[in-house]
Amino acid sequence: MSSKLRVGILGATGMVGQRFISLLENHPWFEVVTVAASPRSAGKTYEEAVGGRWKMDTPMPEAVKKLVVMNVNEVEKVASTVDFVFSAVDMSKEEIKAIEEEYAKTETPVVSNNSAHRWTPDVPMVVPEINPEHFEVIESQKKRLGTTRGFIAVKPNCSIQSYAPVLTAWKEFEPYEVVATTYQAISGAGKTFKDWPEMVENIIPYIGGEEEKSEQEPLRIWGKVENGQIVKATEPVITCQCIRVPVLNGHTAAVFVKFRKNPTKEQLIEKLVNFKGFPQEAELPSAPKQFIQYLEEDNRPQVKLDVNFENGMGISVGRLREDTVYDWKFVGLSHNTVRGAAGGAVLCAETLKAKGYIQAK
């Protein structure tokens, strides 16, 4: 009998669900034992349910092919088979909120990739290198839900990963105003070029809801736990434009920053390359050894060369230079479905396990 924690994936047939499955293959702590999806997939094997829609670069893991897909709405039945679940369900925001709370109330921790609970006051939204202390709010959430081990934790939007860690590394220089434009890959919409041919050689200057998330979610990550809920920070003020570009994986951000203090370029780079957090200190299985790399070449970071830095869990930064209107500007790059989605959630789950929040039932 494996000593690994038994994991279920809700929404296992979609793109992020598939990414969870590929990332968890041979994971030292977690084993996928249950896959759940919509009623139309239920009863088929995972291989049959996904069919020709497997979107990962690596083959479908043998261990999941013959798992029979369960109906995600049969909450008690699914929950009885696992120690915790990753949630990547494709439903309306209200439906997601309800079903994730239902799972939590079965005493099953839920680590969610969805946005539905990102602003629920007692649900932690965490980048483990930045704000793992926000997991403390789980105790208040359990009181509200009436649970002893069930809770919901979420990871933030994929678009902020290419600049929020950078601004965190520079906190002591007091960044107070930020302009960011993100150039976002089509996999962020759960698509490939085969599904979305109109994106070939095209740019769409609009992604629904994305700009608000990109401006507000970093402030919640930088907030504080007060009286059993998370109170967001007020600075730096961020304004953002989000643009869909013809790239499969990798969100790039062009960012301008004003600081209250006056750092040198050397100081800024030193803070980036030495920035680490709990995942690095605890040597968690999915943690990048180097969280942020700085690239000196003028033409980096590039999606083709840099998106898979640290297996897609690291952030690449380049083109740091003084600006004529703002103080400094830079370009950041992160892998949107690894660090930005499933991988970020796996790292959250590893942090929760390391801190004792997730245990075997």
From TrEMBL:
Entry's EC annotation: 1.2.1.11
The keyword Protein biosynthesis appears for this protein: no
Chain coiled-coil ranges: none
Domain Semialdehyde dehydrogenase NAD-binding: 6-138
EC class of the enzyme, as a word: oxidoreductase
Record-level Gene Ontology MF annotations: aspartate-semialdehyde dehydrogenase activity; NAD binding; NADP binding; protein dimerization activity
InterPro entries (UniProt xref): ASADH-related, Asp_semi-ald_DH_pep-lack, NAD(P)-bd_dom_sf, Semialdehyde_DH_NAD-bd, Semialdhyde_DH_dimer_dom
Catalytic-site annotation from UniProt: 158, 251
Domain of life the protein comes from: Bacteria
Gene Ontology biological process terms, A to Z: methionine biosynthetic process; threonine biosynthetic process
Membership in a protein family: Belongs to the aspartate-semialdehyde dehydrogenase family.
Protein name per Swiss-Prot or TrEMBL: Aspartate-semialdehyde dehydrogenase
Organism: Blautia faecicola
Gene this protein is translated from: asd
